[in-house]
Structures are given as structure tokens and as C-alpha cells.
Amino acid sequence: MNSFGKILRVHIFGESHGSCVGVVIDGVSAGLPISEEDFLIDLERRKGNHQKGTTPRKEKDFPIFKSGIFNGKATGFPITILFENENVRSEDYEKQKNIPRPSHVDWAAHQKFGGFEDYRGSGHFSARLTLGFVAAGVIAKKMMPNIKIEANIISIAGENDIEKGLQKAIEAKDTVGGIIECKVNGLPVGLGEPYFDSLESLLAHIIFAIPAVRGIEFGTGFKATTMFGTEHNDAIENMQGKTKTNHAGGIVGGISNGNELIFRVAFKPASSTPKEQISLNWETQKLEKFSIKGRHDLCVALRAPVIIEAVTALVLADCMLLEQKIPRVIK
Amino acid sequence: MNSFGKILRVHIFGESHGSCVGVVIDGVSAGLPISEEDFLIDLERRKGNHQKGTTPRKEKDFPIFKSGIFNGKATGFPITILFENENVRSEDYEKQKNIPRPSHVDWAAHQKFGGFEDYRGSGHFSARLTLGFVAAGVIAKKMMPNIKIEANIISIAGENDIEKGLQKAIEAKDTVGGIIECKVNGLPVGLGEPYFDSLESLLAHIIFAIPAVRGIEFGTGFKATTMFGTEHNDAIENMQGKTKTNHAGGIVGGISNGNELIFRVAFKPASSTPKEQISLNWETQKLEKFSIKGRHDLCVALRAPVIIEAVTALVLADCMLLEQKIPRVIK
Amino acid sequence: MNSFGKILRVHIFGESHGSCVGVVIDGVSAGLPISEEDFLIDLERRKGNHQKGTTPRKEKDFPIFKSGIFNGKATGFPITILFENENVRSEDYEKQKNIPRPSHVDWAAHQKFGGFEDYRGSGHFSARLTLGFVAAGVIAKKMMPNIKIEANIISIAGENDIEKGLQKAIEAKDTVGGIIECKVNGLPVGLGEPYFDSLESLLAHIIFAIPAVRGIEFGTGFKATTMFGTEHNDAIENMQGKTKTNHAGGIVGGISNGNELIFRVAFKPASSTPKEQISLNWETQKLEKFSIKGRHDLCVALRAPVIIEAVTALVLADCMLLEQKIPRVIK
Amino acid sequence: MNSFGKILRVHIFGESHGSCVGVVIDGVSAGLPISEEDFLIDLERRKGNHQKGTTPRKEKDFPIFKSGIFNGKATGFPITILFENENVRSEDYEKQKNIPRPSHVDWAAHQKFGGFEDYRGSGHFSARLTLGFVAAGVIAKKMMPNIKIEANIISIAGENDIEKGLQKAIEAKDTVGGIIECKVNGLPVGLGEPYFDSLESLLAHIIFAIPAVRGIEFGTGFKATTMFGTEHNDAIENMQGKTKTNHAGGIVGGISNGNELIFRVAFKPASSTPKEQISLNWETQKLEKFSIKGRHDLCVALRAPVIIEAVTALVLADCMLLEQKIPRVIK
């Protein structure tokens, strides 16, 4: 269940407080140059290092290649990348393991996995698993040198000014959410299929694999529900299929139409707020006040743009392979 | 690419103006009683018959069982259901086949399928294919007698009053969009997986398989981006996992938590508006005025609730089978 | 579970004594010319009409196109083909439904499907389902005009002379088995993958989907177990990879090496022998003598070459698509 | 392509002379006790340590758990197991990298992967990858405590006496092949499906993932082609479905029938023989004499029984999960 993709396939594994998190990426075109340096910028972006509101937990997060790369190039076989967990404070979690944190998966996971789940630092549910997404995304991006994927925060805590939104969080000593917009340029016409494998279906599928995502909309999105057809329709203007407007956000009938791909993603405020909360202790069966220690972000959306770019790249590269627009061997 | 599901698998086929549309449903529990009558209510709902604003094309849309049902019960083998196309006016489309309709898939499909696609009535892209979704959904619903799925229109053309929204469309002689809300009660805890097979991922995947969908949000959705963590967090109140609020919409960490599942879906205004439009004739390479004849809905969202229920049921039944909460044989 | 393939995907359905058997073939390259005539030779070969030892049940077995073909060409969408069941004598089976026929699936199916299976004429288990294989194979073959697949009977009832083997069956009034050899020429180097998707794995997988198959061997096969390495090794002779010998049968390390692909398939004698047999009546719980009425073949292997060719073509076309050696659109 | 399974899914990775080989096993029931000790016997069997004719390369082959195990039990999330490569002599291979070894994949892999493959010690094609099979098999076996899987060598170099067969190899200083028979007891009725997911299809698929396998037969196998139907048919004797004979080898119509599952697998002599051979140097384009240095087995079949048991266990456990005969959580 921890796998995604048809030709370019990604499998993630690991736990927050176990030995590592990692990813296996199968189906990468042989010959693609891959070095550790390729990963550094995106891994750094994922840390959100330079912004207020991100967690003080700082791993080195250096990618360790375990397979599939030889002489600096992809071999065409599965690429395995590990990220060691080095900076772990499990005792923070041990104390509160019987108190399911509100809006965390603790309670549901405990039911589903019978109490055998690794509860330390959310275990497999930790956002640390998105290291694997980012690493796979770096490779997917390299497979499509002419396609430009760019995600940006467009609002935090309801404010279009990121600083202002973060200030709200800092003042309230509480977590806040945000909206990320992703734009892709250079896409060929014809990616995606009608119905089950529509490009929206594939993108939405993997976007909701990112923790804290609560909504996605393409093109004009929810606002389109208030428009008339003649307002919303994008008239084709030239033989390249360029449209006058782009309410569709680059996808019609499930298929890319060559215009800019645009979608927006809603991130809720992180559940792990520094404020005192109340929950039910499932051992004592009593409500208890508690505070979440650990180290957490005031705004998880800050780290999200690079993750959204990564998973978008995975979907697009897979579609490109299916449409034979990326070769299996890169010479 | 026209398939969905892991254990309960659905394959759709057919064209709007070909001989039929249909569906193969594999993995249905043996012994499930299935009769033609089971389908009539939902098929009727899909027609949106009794509401203004739906297309005058009225097929009988009677389900023809071709396999997998014996003595009124599912055999456990693939169930094939056909819907014959009886009321076809292809000449409406023949005339305009070189003018890609704005915001329709015509242009992109022509590029992707090399001009070999059946363009009559949108061919395989026709919303008529959703007959297969509805039929499969009827069976999936029957596999989960204790789970109640209900989708309703909550706004049309930006109005919360359906009548008022439709009136806007009728007055403007233009198409309008709408928002559908789906609620599911009776779900067990533990459906869905972290990451790629999160319940949101699976639901969003199949929801975007429905034509004209532009957005989806779970629980509080996009509005959650304006809330603080302590506002948004749902505190667990009892040992059944009931939460005080339900901002999460019944899913945490990708997994159902036993509370009501809630999501909303945005439908754009249909591209086929009765108004005159302009597009590029790809033969003459000139812009042309044209009107869409055919028979079309002023508001496709009117037919959508039953389709949303159907695909939701498909996802949930598949998850239930995976979690061994539906038996493979029903005695 | 009734599906096969990655890009070229085949779904079969139907029952022997239901309304039809059929197949959905998804992923066929758009533009491929397809007419009913294309199917006639292979469908005729499947009937084994002109040979002694084949069943007197003679359906017209005419392919009815229900979707995916427009103006005589594949559209790129799912192709559905039905074969109506016209010549059904269900009463033959009704009488003996509580007596599981020896070496038939009756007993196991009854346990697995809880008695809800369609038992008439073996229902979904009927070799009549292989009509779908043959139809899909015709299309797959057409996608690879430069690849020649040819399967032939090389022994019947242990005799290398087919006539002599059949004579044994006729004299004994009993069924007999046989061995089919399949050879493929014109394959490119590089189809198949190491390990799980080795070309042998994919071929063996689908070959064992054919009823009555009990074994498969590639190249020198079981006899290779008696050879020394230096005897068995195939030395490469030229820059095209042509080998001096071909003990490998065209596959090394799971991958086609450009030499002739060769494998052999063992078919057991059909379980439905005209002779009186004994089995346990699961209603009376007593052993009973009984004879199989119905209409059956003395040697199912006679019909098998075309079925083997068909499924081989399906695997190869899927691998060719994956390796981008067949285009998605054929102009 | 390096993945297998529906609910219990296995992904393998690594290269012979890279940093490690490994496996990700997803879908393991939460709560299953797993310790390093569980692996030692089967890993030792895979080394074939105590038998003549196995390679002198001796790694420690100790399983390193990287994810999915917590407090000695499966968490229900992906289990990652690595085996470090410690004893690597790459220079043996460097010298001959332009001479494709006869009947090795060198030449075909070079074509398919464009020369980017890791050629050292056969890279990803190395039988060392079967460490992952064995490790996954240990876990699959533990999921089915009441099912007994046992594979044994039944012939070496055409001799039923293993010692005698090996003696032939040692005397000839050449490699030899062999046949392994696998028997499974305790299987429930009903595993496998008709056609594409027949139990034979699934087993054959994964058996051919093992390097050097050239054939497989179930029950009486190829010999069944010489029998009459009445000889081959297995009459059911009691209400448990026990048959008088077991020519079917425990599978009818693709489905387990509760009798002993039996199949045999043919292993060719290893391609890496110590004898001098001739091949085409693809740089000089001339035929050259050469000898394979490295460290290799005289009879790879000696290590094979435990590998066959492992992959058989993977298929059976996956089928058991699908049939809901193994719970998702083991308490």
C-alpha cells in the first residue's frame, strides 16, 4: 500500500524514530546522471530552514545511495535511498503513548494496527517519510529537463502575506495552515486518461498522500462553481492549443492540453500545537490535560512546496514514460 | 487505464454513440443478491429526470446483465453490465468535428489519440460512461448494508438554494456549476492507509474520474487553512473514538476514524453551453462562431450526487474487503 | 483477478451457459485497423474443426464489437468483444450438479464460491472463455506485424505423430494429452526484466491461465538438468547477439536476447472423458457411478496452438509497449 | 518491475558488488513476531554451506532490519531488510567486461540498459538478490504456521543420487543442473482463481523469477501428456475433497483443492563454468577464449530448495490474505 506509479514506481518505508526512512524508486531511465549533490537543494527546501515557524529538529538528511546507481548514473534497476535518523528523542513520546493526540492518527492507527504500530514520533506516519517523496521527486524532475514545476505558498492562516500569517501563529502560540499553488510549464499535450487515470485523479491521489492536506482544486477550482459556462470556457486560439483563458488549469477531460497546469492544495494547521489540550487516555479511560512536547512546526505548509513539486514530478514522469515521451535509456 | 480497485475492480468501456456503454465488476462477493430492480432508483437519479436543467436525451438505461450473476446472485466471477445506446443523433456532431469545443477534450483527445477517437457525442469521454459507475456503485452499496452514503447538492451557481441557482442558468441560457457534499455514516475505524493509499487519496482519485469535477475537500477543507490548530483539532471524547468536533471529516492520517466521513466536490459549469461560442477550426485553421447542438444539461451537478455516492461506495467496499470486513462469500 | 497486463490489459468475463463470453482489451494503440475478418482464421483454428477429437459443440463464435473500434480502427479506448452463447444444453449439467467430476474444478469451486458459482458447463471455468484470449491475441498480433509467433503440436498421447496419438484416444474411447511447442521469431533484444517480470515469468503466468496446462519449459527445459554447463551454454557469435546454439530458448536473465524464443507446454488429458467414472455425491455423501454427457474433446491440445499463440502475443505486445517498441498511436 | 504480490507485496533491490542487496515487504500482518534468529536457518540453507559444489564466497548474510519491526513484532508497515555486501572482488569482473559470458545476461542487459548496468558480479542480476526472496519467505512462512512447505532436490545432473550427480560435476570440472520438487501440506481449499490468477500462474510467475530456472510442472506434469483421462483423473473420496490419486498436484481449475500441492522445477547448469570458453568481445568484435574467474557454484540447484520454499510461501500467503484466511492483525 506504500507504493505508487505504473512504470516509474515508488515505494516508501521507515519510521520517525527507527533506524531510517527511505525510498525505492523503480523504473528510472538507465543513464540518468544522479549524484548526492542533486538532492541537496530540495532537501534543504523541505527543512524550511530559513523560515520562522519550522521545527527545531534538524537532521543532516543526507541521501545514502544503496542501489541502482553505478558510476554516477542510474542503471535502470531499483534505486534505493536511505536517510538515517540521527536526532531522536523518543522519551518525549513514551510518556504520552496512551493519550491519542487530537486530530493525529494515534487512535485510528492503534485500532487498525492492533497497538503494534511504532508510536514514537508518529512512527511510519511521521512527515519525515516525505524525505522519500522529495528524493524520488528530484530524480523525476531530472527525467524531465524541459518541464518546469514550481510550487509556492499563496496564503498562510488566511493571509496572502506569508510573514503576516506566520506572525499570527507566533503570537497565538498555535499552529496555522496555508494554501500552496503549483504551476507546471512545458507539459506536452496528452498526459492522463479519461476517467480513472485522469491527470487530476493521479495528481490528487498522490497529493493527498502528503500529511495535512485537506483539499485540492484545479484551475479555477471551487470558484468555477459560481461561473457560467461561457465565462469558464477556455477558447482555443492557435494550432498549438493555446487557450485565451486557462480556467481549466491545463487539464480537459482528464488530459493535459498543453497550457499551464495549475492546482492549489489546502494544508490544515498541524495537529501538534504547543498549547495544552484535552484527550481521552485509553488506559485510564479518563479525559486528561496534556501538552505535546516533541519538536514541531507552527506551519507545516512552509515545508510543503518542495514536497508538492516532488509528487507532481512523480506523476508527470510516469505519464511521460507511458506516453513514450521519456526514453527508457538516456544516452 | 480504464480500471480501478484492488480487490473489487471496475473496468469501464463504451462510447456515447457506439453500440453501448458498460462495466465489468470483478471481485464481488459470491452470493450477493442482485436483480435489475436494484439498479432502477440510482439509474433514475442519474437521469435527474424530475429536475429542470437536465438534458432531454432520455435513454431507457436498463441494465443488461451479461455475466457473473446466476439465479439472482453474484457468482464471484466478473459481472458485466451493458447499457445499450438507443437514442443517438450523431449527425449533430458530424458537422462540427473539426471545431474543438471550448473546454471540451476534443482538441487534446485529437492530439493524444491521433484523430482515431470516436468524436460523436464525445465518444468514450461522454458522461454517459458514468452509467457504469452508477451500476457498479449499486453493487458496492449492496455489499455494505450497514454503511449509509448520501450525497446532496449544497450549492448551484453559487446559490445555496438549488431552485434559485437553476433559475440563474435558465435566465442566462447558460450552464452553471455546483457543489455536492457527501456524507458517510457507519464506517468502521481503520479503512485506508498512510500515504499513497490514504482514504483521501483513493476517494479523490475516483472522484476526479467524474467529468467536470474541479476540486475536492475533506472535512473543513480549504477553510481549515484559516484556522488555528487548537480550533481545528478534534478532541476524542469516548472509547469509540467519537470526537467533539469533526473538522477532520472522519479521516486522520489517511485512515477512517469512525466519525462521519464528509467531503465536498466542486463541479464546473458544463462546457456545452447553448450560447454561441468561438473556436479554432483545425481544418481551416480559422476562428469560427458556432453553437453546440446536441442535447445537454444546464447543470451537470444535478445528476452528480448519485455518481458520487457510487464511486465512494466502490472505494469503501474495496477498503472493506482489504480489511476483511466484507466476506468473499455471503451466505 | 480476471485481468492481465500492464499497458495492454485484458479482462475476461462470461460463462459457458450464460448469455455470452467476452473480453475487454485496454491499451491497444489508436489507429490499429481491426475488422471482424481479422478474427476468423484464429477463431476457426480454436474450434479445431477439421480435426478428429474435437467437441461437436459448434458455435458460430462470431466476434461482436461493442466498444473501442470506430471507422474500422482502434480508438485507443477499451475494446470490448462479445461472443454470444447460442447452442446451450444446460440440462446435461443440471442432473449431475451434486457429483463433482473427477479432476474438474467442481468441488473446489463449490467450496470457494459457496455454491453460488454457475455450474452449467463449468460456467466461468469453461474453456469457452479462451475465446476472449484468442480475440485479444488477434489484436496483439496485429500490433506486432514483424514478429512471427507459431505454435504447433509436437506430441499427442506420447506419440510424435498426431494421427497416431488421436487414434489411441479414439480406440480407447478416452481423452489424451499432448505437448505444444511455440516459437517466436523477430523479437527485439531486451523484452522482460530480471526476477519478477522475467519474460519466462510473464509467459508462464499467462500460459497457466489456459485450462489443462500442467507444465512449461523454455529452451532445452527439463533436459537441461542433465547437461554440463559447457554443453548448455550458448556462445555469442556476432554483434547481433546470434548464438551458436539456442539452449536458452531466446531468454537469458529474464530478458529476450534476440534469438528464437522457444517454449513447450504440457496439456493433460481432458478431465471430461466419455468413460464411466466414480465420484462422491456431495448431497447423498455416497460414491456414485456416472458418465459425463455434454460435448467434449478427446484431445484439448488440438485447439491449443492458437490459444498459446494468443497469450504469447499478449505478453510480448505488453513488453513491446513498455520498451516503447510499439507506438501508442499508429499512423 | 521488481515487485510482486497483491496484498503481501515484495520489492527487491541491490547489486552483487554494490553496498547491499535488500527487500521491502509490505502488507505483513501487524503483530507477527519477527527476530533476526528467525532468518538464520533459511539463510544458512541458501548458502548450501555444508555441501560440495557451492561457491566459496561466504558473506555473513546477516539480516539488518531497517523498518517495520518494533518491539520484536511487525508493525503492519513496510519491513525493510538489508544484507550488506562485504566480500567483494570486483576486479575479477572488470577485466572481462567487454566479453559477454555465454548464456549469461551480459549481452542482453548491455543492449537493454544501454551499458549503464552494473556489470560487476552480474550486478542486479546476481543470484545474491535471492537473499531478499529468502528473507521475505521466512516472514511469509511465519504468517502461515499451519502450512508446511518443503522443497528437496530430486535429481542432479540426471542422477537421482545427489552425491553421484555432484561427483559428475567435480570430475568434469563443469557445472551441472538439477530438479527440485516442492510439496506443500495443510493448504485450505480455494486459493487461486480461474485463468490469469490461477495458483499455477502465480507460482510459475515467481518461480521463474529465480535465476537458472528453465521449467516447471505441477502434479504429474509433462508425463500427464502420455496418460489417458481415466488414468489421470483424481477421484474424490470423501467430504474433505481428498482424492484417491493426486495427479493434479493439488490444483484443479487454478484453485487449490486441499490435497498436497506438488510441483517440480528444472534448474539448468550454471552458466559460469570453470572451463575455458569462447565468446565475442564487443569492443574488439573478435571471438576470444576466456575463463570465468570469480567464485561460483558447480550446482546452483543445491541452494535452490530454500529459495523455492520462500517464493512459494510468498504466493500462498498473498492468496491466504486475499481469501481472508490470514488476519491483518495477529493478536
> Terminal Cα separation of chain A, in Å?
34 Å
Spatial strand sequence of the major β-sheet of chain A:
1-2-3-7-4
Largest interface (CB < 8 Å): C-D, 105 and 105 residues
Report on the biggest sheet of chain A: 5 strands, antiparallel
Name of the CATH superfamily of chain A: Chorismate synthase AroC
Determine the mean pLDDT of chain A.
93
Number of helices of chain A: 8
Strand coverage percent of chain A? 15-25%
CATH topology of chain A: the name is Chorismate synthase, AroC fold
Give the number of DSSP strands of chain A: 15
The SSE string of chain A, one letter per element, is: EEEHEEEEHHHEHEHEHEEEEEH
CATH architecture of chain A: 4-Layer Sandwich
Assembly level? homotetramer
Low-confidence stretches of chain A: none
- Given the helix and strand composition of chain A, which structural class is it? alpha+beta
Under CATH at level 1, the class of chain A stands as Alpha Beta
- Percent of residues of chain A in helical segments? 10-25%
Keywords:
globular, 331 residues, four-stranded antiparallel beta sheet, five-stranded antiparallel beta sheet, Chorismate synthase, AroC fold, homotetramer
